[in-house]
Amino acid sequence: MSMKLILQGPQADQATLERLAAMAAPASSTMLHARALRADGFDFTPDLKAQVEAAAFDAGVDATFIDAGRLLSDFKLVAMDMDSTLITIECIDEIADMQGLKPQVAAITEAAMRGELGFSESLTRRVALLEGLPVEALGRVYEERLRISDGGEAMLQSAQAAGLKTLLVSGGFTFFTERLKTRLDLDFTHANLLEAQDGKLTGRVVGGIVDAEEKRRTVERVCAQLGIDTRQAIVMGDGANDLGMMSVAGLSVAFRAKPVVRAQADVALNFSGLDGLLAILA
After folding, report:
1. What is the CATH number of the domain that holds 41?
2. pLDDT in tens, 217-266
3. Of 77, 93, 81, whose CA–CA distance to 211 is shortest?
4. Distance CA 105, CA 90 (A)
5. Which of 80, 100, 154, 213 has its CA at a distance of 20 to 30 angstroms from the CA of residue 230?
6. Within 10 A of 202 (CB to CB), how many other CB atoms are there?
7. Residue 67 catalytic?
8. What does the pLDDT read at residue 276?
């Protein structure tokens, strides 16, 4: 099976991309746009992959080896994590900042994302620190701090135009996923529900926690609902709690991810925006 190599980076120039492509000695190369190049007709080996990826990383370039014929239209669903994937922030860290507790909460978040702490335990501990915070603080985080990651809207629009359904599955909170569902015209969302009484957070989550296993089950449920195999899904994430749902996907994408996630993903976008997926599946 022939492979293609996609090289891309937000600061990459043509000379850099061509220099990296030359390491594979391709029969042909084509500029996809000013910051992306496709190389074809080379002998793929694991050693070549490792060498090109290392050199590309040092140059601030994403290098992706993938089956030459793979297209966006081969898939039926794109599923995304929310915090630090579809959006640039960790919502719970920013909520905690309203309480002056961001360092404590962020430290727990980081430990969970690296896989050093179970997600359910970490979420319970973090949410408990939010007790007494006015619910209106969530609105301030959404309006003042939440931003879509680079290329996120372009990626979603292209996926939707190609007929893919969209799923946002998050260990974060429904307050944010529901607003993003409307804003971005997403088909499905699933997240944790924060409990509130008298206009203030209680420090608890209502119902079960959306942890790594629940994320995987959600992708499986949505695929079953759509009548597709999970191998027809693209799954994008950044943390250890995304590995379960990424493992059942036809294409797993690590976005600005922790090393443990990059090591297990099919594709790693370390520098490009989420729309880097479009060049890979063009």
Report:
1. 3.30.70
2. 999 999 999 999 999 999 999 998 999 999 999 999 999 998 989 999 99
3. 81
4. 10
5. 154
6. 17
7. no
8. 98
Instruction: Show the domain range for 15.
Output: 1-69
**In Å, how far are 42, 157, 225 from 269, measured between CA atoms?**
22, 19, 29
Amino acid making up residue 120:
S
> At 264, which amino acid appears?
Q
79, burial (CB in 10 Å: exposed 0-12, middle 13-18, buried 19+):
buried
User: How do residues 125-155 score in pLDDT, each as one tens digit?
Assistant: 999 999 999 999 999 999 999 999 999 999 9
Report if residue 250 sits inside a domain: no
pLDDT at 105 over 90: no
**Taking the complete model, does pTM exceed 0.85, yes or no?**
yes
Residues in the chain: 282
Kindly indicate the confidence band of residue 279, based on its pLDDT and cuts at 50, 70 and 90: very high
> Within a domain: residue 58?
yes
Active-site choice (83, 211, 242, 275): 83
- Asked whether the predicted pLDDT for residue 163 surpasses 90, the reply is yes
Q: Among 13, 43, 62, 81, which one carries the catalytic annotation?
A: 81
In a domain, 142, yes or no: no
Catalytic residue flag (residue 198) = no
**Is position 198 within any domain?**
no
What does the block give as tokens for 229?
């195999």
